[in-house]
Amino acid sequence: MNLPGSRGTLTAHSRSAAIALAGLLAGTPSFAETQHELLFFPSVDGFDTFSESDASVKDSSTRASLDLVYSMSSDRFRLFGEFLWSTQHTELERLQAGLRIGDQTFLWVGRFHSPAKFWTSEYHHGQYLQTSITRPALEEWEDDGGSYPSHIAGLLLESDLQWRDDSAIGLAASVGLAPVLSENRLSPYELFEDSSDHGLSLGFRATYRPENVSSSQVGVLVGWNEINVEPGTNAPPADSGSVDQATLGVFADWYWNDLRMLASVVYFDNDLAFPAQNVDDTYLLGYVQLEYATNDVVTVFGRIDDGIDQDDSAYLGLLRNSVIQRYMLGARWDVAEYHSLTLEIADTTSGASPSGSEDFNELRLQWSAVFP
Amino acid sequence: MIRCKGQWLLVCIAAFLAGAGEPGNKVVLVTGAACPVASISALDLRKAYLGVAVNIEGRRVRPILMTSDERLQQIFYQSVVAMSKKSYERRRLSLMLKFGTPRLAEIDDVASVAEALEREECAVTYMWGRDAEALQGVKTIKLLWQDT
User: Fold this and answer.
1) Which residues of chain A are within 8 Å of residue B58 when distances are taken between CB atoms?
2) Confidence of residue B3 (pLDDT cuts 50, 70, 90)
3) Is the CB of residue A255 less than 8 Å from the CB of residue A215?
4) I need a labelling partner for A169 at 20 to 30 A (CA). Which of A27, A117, A206, B122 fits?
5) Is B53 in the A-facing interface, judged by CB distances under 8 Å?
6) Cis peptide before A354 (omega within 30 of 0)
7) In whole numbers, what is the pLDDT of chain A averaged over residues?
8) Number of neighbouring beta carbons within 10 Å of residue A315
């Protein structure tokens, strides 16, 4: 079986982008006013997949990852990159240049993470900063069976507005290139790629924070993506054509002392236009994750990933490795400053009809850290 | 045996006294003498240290972390940002990961404070009151904490 994250690729585009980032790091001018930041997020995780009723899903694997985040900032200008290396996948995740056009407003150009996905905008690839090992099904990366775009190339505007009562509204809007559907997964635009098959992507997020500096927040997510099919690379019926995908969602990240809740629900309206099939496909996907800090070093957590009508979605049925339901429990132990060990168990369903679904259990163990 | 216990008791009392703040000790917020900012609210100061752009009298406040001693850092977490060290560090890392926001500058040596505050207009940092009084070219703009 194909497990999430089991793709092993290092494309020519990734290599070009990696070389570009390395050149950027080496050639960065050292103005006195310019600040440089470099963070490393390493992690090693092992997982075991098994089912009492279906021996064919038995699998186990170990993956090591290193996420490198670099920024160069001056008062008006910022250059920002994120490069992920792992034993199974290597990619320049983000490379964006930003201009400050207000105290709390940046206009970015480059490749960035979609503002229309909450978890993605919150944790990016910084594994150490997220409590759980797995991401919610709704928030999966494209190459792990994600059902809507995470990586966009184009323009991104981010702004923070503060009100007199000290509450704040955060706004983020993007316009750029959407992924294409290739080999039954979404394939985002890679920098230096010469393909012109990518359609239009629009994304928007509005966030309300009751206090400007509070960690609690709620918001809305809106997206529209024209996902073109790369001809001849997908199983029928998606031989050619396109998927117009509209999304509307809400999210919340709320703290009550030692208890935290992360939740998001997104409504999908997919218009599938294939030579042999035209379908208007709608469903709802969402998750609720609760985290409880039992003391300063141990946090227990659980998450429900579920939806409405997602299990017979024609669109999700096109995607490989798409998790449609997961019930998960876990515990995280912060063993030292900037180091943690996390354990997760889950009951998972992957794949939607008509391609058929698989039910299995997952056991995961992870070490994650951040340097410096 | 009793004598041995007595020695341990004395050691404990001495350690306790050494760790306790002296009455009258205070922690103050300082900036360069050339900065026109004369005061800052506790809320604005907290925002500045949590990564929000804060302007006072048209000048951007530029916070610097003072890491010269552990007790001073504890007072900073309790009295300035009102959060644990762990939460504060996670926030700083998160801002860097999300927006590429550079982490705040740090000073670990009291002797470097005057130079750092002079180099960047309206840079602010916190320090023991007695150290601030001994420095040339800096001015105190806020009392942050006082031992009672």
Assistant:
1) none
2) low
3) yes
4) B122
5) yes
6) yes
7) 89
8) 25
Mean pLDDT (chain B) is 86
| C-beta atoms of B52 and A98 within 8 A | no
Cα A179 to Cα A189: distance, rounded to the nearest angstrom: 6
Interface predicted TM-score (ipTM): 0.87
Whether the model clears a pTM of 0.95, i.e. scores above it, the answer is no
Could you give the C-alpha distances from B52 to A170, A208, B128, in angstroms and in order? Answer: 12, 16, 25
- Which of B84, B93, B100 is nearest residue A129 as measured by Cβ atoms? B93
Quote the CA–CA distance of A255 and A217 in Å, as a whole number.
9
Both tokens of B134, joined, read 């001994």
CA distance A227 to A191: 18
Question: What's CA A225's distance to the chain center, in Å?
Answer: 16
Q: What is the mean pLDDT of residues A45-59?
A: 84
B94/A98 Cβ within 8 A: no
Amino acid A18: pLDDT? 55
Under 8 Å between Cβ of A340 and A368: yes
The model's pLDDT over B8-22, given as tens digits with 9 standing for 90+, comes to 655 555 544 444 445
Provide the CA B95 distance to its chain's centre, in angstroms.
Answer: 20
Residue in this structure with the two tokens 């905008």, named with its chain if needed: A121
At A108, the amino acid letter reads W
Sign of CA dihedral A22, A26, A28, A34: positive
Nearest-by-CA chain A residue for B85: A337
CB A254 within 8 Å of CB A261: yes
Q: Which two tokens stand for residue A34?
A: 């310019």
Q: Helix and strand tally (H, E) in chain A?
A: 2, 18
> Tokens in use for A301?
């957590």
Chain A: give the shortest CA distance to residue B10, in Å.
Answer: 32
Residue A239 burial (C-beta neighbours within 10 Å; 0-12, 13-18, 19+): middle
Would you call A212 an interface residue with chain B, using a CB distance cutoff of 8 Å? yes
Residue A339 Cα to chain centre, angstroms? 22
Q: Tell me: the pLDDT tens digits for B36-80?
A: 999 999 999 999 999 988 999 889 999 999 998 899 999 999 999
From B84, B94, B102, residue closest to A73, measured CB to CB: B102
Q: DSSP character for B49?
A: H
Q: What angle do CA A124, A126, A127 make, to 5 degrees?
A: 115
Instruction: Please give the C-alpha separations between residue B2 and each of A150, B5, B7, B41, in angstroms, as whole numbers.
Output: 70, 5, 9, 54
A–B CB contacts, 8 A cutoff, strictly below? 58
Partners of A78 on chain B (C-beta within 8 Å) are 100
CA pair distance A268, A221, nearest whole angstrom: 12
**Six-digit token string for B131:** 């150290």
- Inspect the interface and report whether the beta carbons of A39 and B53 lie closer than 8 Å: no
Collect all residues with Cβ–Cβ distance below 8 Å to B1 and sequence separation of at least 6.
Answer: none
